Each structure stands twice: as structure tokens, then as C-alpha cells.
Backbone:
């Protein structure tokens, strides 16, 4: 092994070790915020970090500070995050120590990931899937933008190498179900990804004997096509040489590997969970310390004791100096809280022709289908995947019909039954510049994907301080229709609207759906589109208004703009009211006002998007009419509609002549299969009429 590599590795190890020791010696100064360190794991982390290139993508986990040092980060950079300082290069003081997100030209790219153990495996696999897609489609190589950089680490030869993805994991996290989803897809599609599993034998206080039936390499053997090896991760030379072969194979053969590295944990699980509280294996762990092993390898490689001491003292001096600087660094200001929850969208105004002359009316599901087709024709980075959307079926609602035939199985494809992967992989796909449109088959099936939607997708922009927004569309067929029963009929918007960092559309007609779909595609932030199944074909009596003249190809409808669908004038001697609603509720409201002959007394507002919420339009209307009814299909207790009613009451209190009322489904656990029970459960035009009557006469 070259002396230069050994010297650099030892310097990084000494730096990481010195940082751990400094944090322990200054515990009161750093213990305000929780942290974990790489002590004991340094050799394998550095062996990997020294071999990754700027075109590669890496997903380190919270114990990987030595890996980050080997990428070229300074102790000062990590300490800014340790102390939650304003200039923390990863999150601007928003996230824990060693929770990196990085987009530097001369280093591997690091998208955001959370603390939730193992959750990074799906976004990381999404990056690998994106790399594979771009290669198949002949899109620009991921390293193109880097070829002109003239850095010490990057040569012309290195820049010509194909990129890989690395996902770093602790062995305890491999028991997570979402790890299985990631491994399954990587093996099935043969993606260029390395899963590095650092096995120190511990969860927190639970050890491997209590929590695992096998180690990660043995587990990986069950995924055909995922090759796995086990190595001594505390031995730098063994680690470096093994990883060198694996990385070269992935770059050339474009297939997944898992490297299981056995390492000791020589520091606390975190600063808040001390090792002496529960560990009975500390002496054995210290006998496998990678530091003396690498020091001996330097001696055998021709380094003198003096040279080694110089490297060590230089590392300690650097760490102490950087810590002093970091302590003096500026803290975030209160106003810094309110930045980078979203990045600006270019779509701020309605544009294009909503009703082209001579165009025919089409059903709502076709408006969405045509929107996706137009996007895919124009943008090669656009692709669609989910369950049953491929060419054989084209979606259970035919919402993807003919798309696979027109654009190929690489652009429109089925996934396994893996809602978490469908949702979370968009983080990685977006990170490499793609624009995925994905689908959860029914709203009832969104629950396995909520972990990724909440933990990874929604927080990526904010916790990376704007570096890694997730550009994706998640389509969710929703609502009760045709006796779908308890597992195909639910409304879930109250759960989804409680996830900050995503935008949510809920259109009531085809033209809106097409315009919102186009706006969502061009929005650099994540957008969930809730699409009511009962409106797709307007087969439900009273929903003919969901059909639309298909808007022009350039039609876009910005998110956050409500529609005063039925407008009235202010009247002094007549009781008036505002109905605020969305989706199927729009049709119940319009039908009720027409059947009651009260079109001139009832103003109907179609929200169109639940976030951003057009509060100005709502409040202006309610202040004019003096009364308000919020209509939803969800059970109204503790719902989005209930919260909206409270907001209206608060903002418009002086203008109200009656309490703000809501109507929704009955507050039962599920929608029954029987059609009589279903209709009893959900609202209807007749039920809305009763509520209107009560409010008008209040």
C-alpha cells in the first residue's frame, strides 16, 4: 500500500480520535446537544471515504464523522454542527452532529437523511436507481458538471469513472423492514450501490444476541443478486483493499454489494447514553481498537516513530484550534428559523388556455393521464412508477394507460408492493436531477409510506438548509366510491396536512387536476395530489361537473389559489353563507345550493390545494357572507376541516352571525363495505342541504 494513503488515513484517524477525546474532556460545553462519534469505527470509514469521488453519492449515518473527515471536511465544519452554529455547512444549526448534507463540487454528494436508523437506505437506493435510469436513457453523466473542476482529489481519469452510491448503516438497523425494501429493489434491478454495514454488536443497550437472527451478510444472502462479504473493519489495510475491489466492481459491472464490517464501539452510543451504564464488553472492544493496528501498519510501511508522533500532534493541535474557533462562531438568529422550508417555485400565476376552442370534454382521470403524457414527451427526466402502473395494466384506474407502451418500461414501471420505497426513493431520484411521479394505489395504503414522507421527503429541504429540496409528485387515489369498503375508501388528508414541508392538492375537476399536475411537476418541492376516485369518470350521480374541456398543453394552475366557484354579491337583507370545501365536497355543495334554489345566497369556494392554503380568499368571502360551512368527506372530529373552521372563526369572529359549522363523515373507525352503511357513513347532497338550512336559520 502506498505510503501516501497510509499517512492520510492515519491523520484522519488521529483527527477523529482527538475529536472524541476533546468532546469527552469538554463535555459540559458540548453536551447541550446530543452527539455520537466514530471511535472504534474509524478504519472502515476512512478506507471508504478516501476512495469515493465527487461524482459519487454517499449517505453516512450519525456515527460517521471519520468518514466525513476523509471526504475532505474539516473538524471545524463538524464542530459547527456539534454546537448548532449558524454557519454549520450541513443544516445551519438545525440538525444533530454528523447529520450531513453536502453539495460541494469537490466532494461526494450527500443528500439529507434523518436520525431514524435505516431510513436512509431507501433514499440511497433511489439515488442508485436514478443513476441507472440516466445511464439507460442516455442522459448526461452525473459527473459531467465536475469534469472541468481542477481539484487535488479529482483527475481526468477519476472524473470519467461511473458514479456509485454508498449507504452506510449500523448493523442493528438492518432489522428494519424498510431495509428489506431497499435490498429487494437493489437486487431486483441490479443497481450500482454499496451498502456498508458497520457492526459493533450493539443496538443501544440491546446486543446482537437479543435482536438479530443473523448478521447483515447472512441476511443479504437471501436477496439473490446482492453479493455480500464480511471483513475486519478495524483493520485499515484489509478494509481499504476489500473496498477497493468492491468499488471497482460496482463502477464497472453496475450491481449491488454489501460489505459487513465488524468493528468495536469504543465510545458511548450517544452523549446521552453512556457506555458504562450497560456495557460489559468494554475490555474486549478496546482490544480491537483500530488505532494501534493502523499505527503498526505505518511502522511496517516505513514510517518512523518521529513521523508518526508528528502526525498525531498535528491532528490534536488542529482539533483544539478548530474547537476554539467553533465555540466563538455565531449562533442562528430567531429569524433564521423561517428560511428554506420550501424553495421558490416558478409557477405563481395561472397561464395557458383552460378551455381551448373546439376542444371536447374529457373525464377527470384522462386529464391527469394527458398531463403526464405531455410531461413525459417534453422532459426525459420525468418518469412514472408505482404498483400496477406498468404496461400490462396501466393502473387500476387506467390512470397510466398506454404510457408504458409509449415511453418504455424503463420510464413507466411497476414496483413491488413497497409503499415506503415508492415514496422514499423519490428523495434519491430528485437528488440526481430526475422528476419522479409516483403513485400509492389507494389512500388506505399510504401508511407504510408515511415514515419516508414525513422523515425524509418533507424535511430534506429545511434540514439541508435549502440544498436538497425533493422534486416529486405523489399521486394518491382517495375517497369513498362504489362500496370500496374499509381498505379502499378512506380519506387521509388530515394526516397528510399535518406533515410540514410538502404541498397538497385536492382538485374537484379534470381541468384543475391537469393544471395542478403541471404546476406540481415544475415545482422544486414535494407535492401530494389527492385524486378522488369517485370523480375520475363522473359515474357518481351529481358529479358531471368533474368532467372538463381539456386545457391546453401549456396550461398551469399554481398551487395555493382557491377558486370562487359560485360567487355572490354582498346582500344586507338576505341571509348568505360561504361553503368552503374541496374534492367531492365541491359537488355536494353546488348540487345542494342548486336544489335549494339558493345559488344567489351561497358562495362556494373550491380550495383546490390544502397547502398552501388560500386564506385570503376564504376570509374575504366569510367576512362578506357572515356565515360559513366547511364540507369534507373525512370524519370531522380532529380533522383538517375542523381546524380550518377554527381558523375561520378566529379570523372572522367580528363578522360572523353564527358559529362556523362543519359536516363530514360519521366518526366511525372505517367505511363499511355494505352500500347502505357506506352511504350512512359519508356526507351527501341531502346531508349538506340539512346543514345549510340549519345555518341559514341560525
Residues:
Amino acid at each position: 500500500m502506498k505510503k501516501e494513503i497510509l499517512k492520510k488515513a492515519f491523520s484522519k484517524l488521529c483527527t477523529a480520535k482527538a475529536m472524541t477525546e476533546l468532546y469527552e474532556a469538554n463535555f459540559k460545553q458540548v453536551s447541550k446537544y446530543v452527539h455520537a462519534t466514530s471511535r472504534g469505527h474509524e478504519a472502515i470509514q476512512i478506507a471508504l471515504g478516501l476512495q469515493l469521488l465527487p461524482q459519487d453519492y454517499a449517505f453516512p449515518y450519525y456515527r460517521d464523522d471519520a468518514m466525513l473527515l476523509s471526504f475532505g471536511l474539516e473538524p471545524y465544519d463538524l464542530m459547527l454542527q456539534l454546537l448548532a452554529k449558524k454557519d454549520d455547512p450541513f443544516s445551519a444549526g438545525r440538525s444533530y452532529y454528523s447529520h450531513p448534507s453536502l453539495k460541494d463540487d469537490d466532494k461526494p454528494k450527500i443528500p439529507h437523511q434523518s436520525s431514524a436508523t435505516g431510513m436512509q437506505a431507501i433514499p440511497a437506493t433511489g439515488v442508485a436507481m436514478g443513476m441507472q435510469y440516466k445511464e439507460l436513457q442516455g442522459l448526461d453523466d452525473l459527473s459531467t458538471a465536475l469534469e472541468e473542476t481542477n481539484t487535488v482529489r479529482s483527475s481526468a481519469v477519476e472524473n470519467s469513472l461511473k458514479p456509485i452510491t454508498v449507504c452506510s448503516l449500523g448493523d442493528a438497523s438492518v432489522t428494519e423492514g424498510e431495509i428489506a425494501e431497499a435490498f429487494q429493489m437493489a437486487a431486483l434491478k441490479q443497481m450500482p450501490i454499496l451498502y456498508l454495514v458497520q457492526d459493533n454488536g450493539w443496538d443501544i443497550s440491546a446486543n446482537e444476541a437479543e435482536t438479530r437472527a443473523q448478521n447483515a451478510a447472512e441476511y443479504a444472502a437471501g436477496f439473490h443478486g446482492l453479493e455480500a462479504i464480511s471483513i475486519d473493519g478495524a483493520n485499515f489495510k484489509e478494509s481499504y483493499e476489500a473496498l477497493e475491489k468492491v468499488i471497482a466492481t460496482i463502477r464497472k459491472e453496475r450491481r449491488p454489494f454489501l460489505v459487513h464490517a465488524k468493528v468495536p464501539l469504543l465510545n458511548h452510543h450517544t452523549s446521552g447514553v453512556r457506555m458504562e451504564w450497560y456495557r460489559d464488553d468494554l475490555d474486549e472492544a478496546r482490544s480491537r481498537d483500530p488505532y494501534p493496528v493502523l499505527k503498526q501498519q505505518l511502522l511496517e510501511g516505513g514510517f518512523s516513530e518521529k513521523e508518526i508522533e508528528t502526525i498525531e500532534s498535528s491532528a490534536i493541535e488542529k482539533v483544539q484550534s478548530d474547537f476554539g474557533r467553533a465555540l466563538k462562531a455565531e449562533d442562528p438568529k430567531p429569524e433564521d428559523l423561517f428560511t428554506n422550508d420550501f424553495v421558490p417555485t416558478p409557477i405563481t400565476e395561472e397561464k395557458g388556455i383552460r378551455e381551448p376552442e373546439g376542444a371536447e370534454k374529457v373525464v377527470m382521470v384522462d386529464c391527469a393521464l394527458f398531463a403526464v403524457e405531455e410531461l413525459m414527451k417534453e422532459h426525459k427526466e420525468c418518469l412514472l412508477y408505482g404498483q400496477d402502473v406498468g404496461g400490462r395494466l396501466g393502473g387500476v384506474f387506467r390512470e397510466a394507460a398506454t404510457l408504458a407502451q409509449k415511453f418504455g418500461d424503463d420510464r413507466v414501471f411497476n414496483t413491488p408492493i413497497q409503499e415506503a420505497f415508492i415514496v422514499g426513493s423519490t428523495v434519491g431520484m430528485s437528488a440526481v436531477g430526475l422528476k419522479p411521479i409516483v403513485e400509492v394505489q389507494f389512500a388506505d395504503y399510504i401508511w407504510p409510506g408515511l415514515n419516508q414522507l414525513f422523515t425524509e421527503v418533507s424535511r430534506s429541504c429545511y434540514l439541508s438548509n435549502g440544498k436538497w429540496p425533493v422534486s416529486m409528485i405523489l399521486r394518491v387515489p382517495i375517497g369513498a366510491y362504489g362500496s370500496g369498503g374499509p381498505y379502499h375508501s378512506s380519506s387521509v388528508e388530515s394526516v397528510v396536512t399535518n406533515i410540514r414541508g410538502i404541498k397538497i392538492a385536492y382538485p374537484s375537476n379534470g381541468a384543475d387536476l391537469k393544471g395542478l399536475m403541471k404546476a406540481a411537476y415544475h415545482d422544486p418541492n414535494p407535492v401530494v395530489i389527492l385524486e378522488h376516485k369517485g370523480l375520475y369518470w363522473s359515474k357518481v350521480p351529481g358529479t358531471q361537473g368533474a368532467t372538463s374541456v381539456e386545457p391546453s398543453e401549456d396550461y398551469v394552475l399554481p398551487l395555493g389559489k382557491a377558486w370562487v366557484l359560485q360567487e355572490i354579491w354582498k346582500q344586507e337583507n338576505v341571509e348568505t353563507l360561504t361553503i368552503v370545501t374541496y374534492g367531492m365536497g365541491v359537488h355536494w355543495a353546488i348540487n345542494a345550493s342548486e336544489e335549494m334554489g339558493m345559488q344567489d345566497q351561497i358562495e362556494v369556494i373550491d380550495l383546490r390545494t390544502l397547502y398552501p392554503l388560500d386564506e385570503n380568499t376564504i376570509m374575504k368571502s366569510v367576512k362578506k357572507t357572515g356565515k360559513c360551512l366547511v364540507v369534507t368527506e373525512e370524519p370531522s372530529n380532529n380533522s383538517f376541516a375542523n381546524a380550518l373552521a377554527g381558523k375561520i372563526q378566529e379570523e372572522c369572529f367580528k363578522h360572523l352571525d353564527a358559529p362556523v359549522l362543519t359536516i363530514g363523515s360519521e366518526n366511525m373507525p372505517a367505511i363499511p363495505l355494505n352500500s347502505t352503511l357506506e352511504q350512512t357513513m359519508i356526507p351527501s347532497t341531502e346531508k349538506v342541504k340539512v346543514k345549510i338550512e340549519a345555518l341559514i336559520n341560525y
